Sequence to fold (566 residues):
Amino acid sequence: MIQQFFIKLGNDIAVHAFQHLYLTFISLFIAVIIAVPMGIFLTKTKKEKLVNIIMNIAGIIQTIPTLALLALTVTVFILINQMIGGSDWYREGGAIPTIGVLPGITALVLYSLLPILRNTYTGIKEVDPSVLEVARGMGMTQKQILTSIELPLALPFITAGIRISSVWTIGIATLCGLIGAGGLGDLILIGLRSNQVDYLIAGTLPAAFLALIFDGLMGGLEKWLTPPGLRMRKKRRQ
Amino acid sequence: MIKFEKVTKKFGKEVEAVKNLSLEIQESELLVFLGTSGSGKTTCIKMVNRLEEVSSGHIFVEGKDVQNYDPIQLRRKIGYAVQHIGLFPHFTVGENIATVPNLLNWDKDKTEQRVTEMLELVELNPDQFRNRYPYQLSGGQKQRIGVARSLAADPDILLMDEPFGAIDPITRFTLQDGFLKIQKKLKKTTLFVTHDMFEAIKLGDRIALIDKGTLQQLDKPETLIDNPANQFVEDFLGAQRFQLALLTKEIGDLENIKNLKKEKPEKESQPEAKLKLTDSLLQAINLFKTSRAEKIGVYDEETLIGILGKEKIVAAVSQFLGKWVGSQ
Fold:
């Protein structure tokens, strides 16, 4: 039976799992590129208000139900097209595609920002102030303090943030099937619409596996990136 | 070497942390800034390496106004150690000590050599400690590394902000003794901040007593105790003044100890407890108390010059007390 399952769906699973990973990787990559520098910036700015505003925005995005966020993204893309393309927006070849990979990735990026942003921010803020004072007092430049003190000490936090985001993203990416972005969600939707349990399984199990594998890999990375001077301390605390 | 000229530091518009402070620190001198918390003593030394900027007035380091130095370069030539030590937790002991040499791009062998020297200086075994991480050290060991780190690039000037503050009294005494030994050898121009009078008197060549940002008295330890400049200084010394006075008196200066030198010590009965001529009367009393010995050997550097009996120290203290009461 298992053999038959794979003969029938193996190819589909491989293709869709690949799409799924593609969505996840691209989204995470973009989210890291946005959230880490922004997190660093927020620790350096003196405008407390700005920090609050940005953190709140990221928090609010997080509270929007996933389905709604996908729908909103599509809608906003349509609105943008309307603004750019006038009344021709619905014609094929609008300025930006309103369904498919682009809105899918956009929604995933928005969703994964908060954990990375928050962890980068707290990771750097958590660094012992006396360590920073001495670093300054011994003549390190701001840049040296950031690269050789703050970032290495915050790295385990940042990786933990990326880990949380990656697991979420893999789960949420299944919904991207709804807006035609592909991924394992497609298989689940086929199964749902045509009442075929094997399709449901072919979509669900690999997605769950991917999430587990990612969690494990990122956990390993987190440990590996923790400076040895901090590794033991963590163990001792437990 | 370092000169404060009418230095005032304001935080915001209202708070004056340091008011119109003028003083000069000689080369190789250890000057203690003594005061209660919030007295502005820490701000004083932070203005020297420009962690804080003066609001008005000038601070000169080696004849040049600190405002004319690049702050990064200035800080790299001034050693800095603080109460909370601030060892970098992700650096090994060796890497911590090598911080400033690395910032100054010393070559690798020279830096390694220096780390070894520094660990030996603070009496920690280099092979054993070089590759440890800060979490593997005791509080006292961390403080030693903090001091070693501040000395690593061989700065002419040291700023120390209660470097022995956060540890138990016994370890603190050992560290103070160790630091005195180092200071005798290296003769760094040092600004040392503390709230502990005993520490100030033990370490300081001169003491600047500060209250509410104003210099109350700047004098040698014994002068500060014998002749307090004003009511505040008297109150600050308070009930411990007599004890502090005992700390400033070297046993070599006492009348009946001078006679001791003439007596020939009996070679066969060398006491285990030892004192140096430069040790204080208070140390002698404490040694009698802790060792429970009846006799203590007094040494001039390495040579035994006499045996000090308990009765002699009691006589010396009561004589001193008599003078003390008379002089008050």
Remarks:
- The mean pLDDT of chain A is 88.
- Chain A touches chain B at residues 128, 130-141, 144, 149, 152-153, 227-230, 232-233, 236 (CB under 8 Å).
- The radius of gyration of chain A is 21 Å.
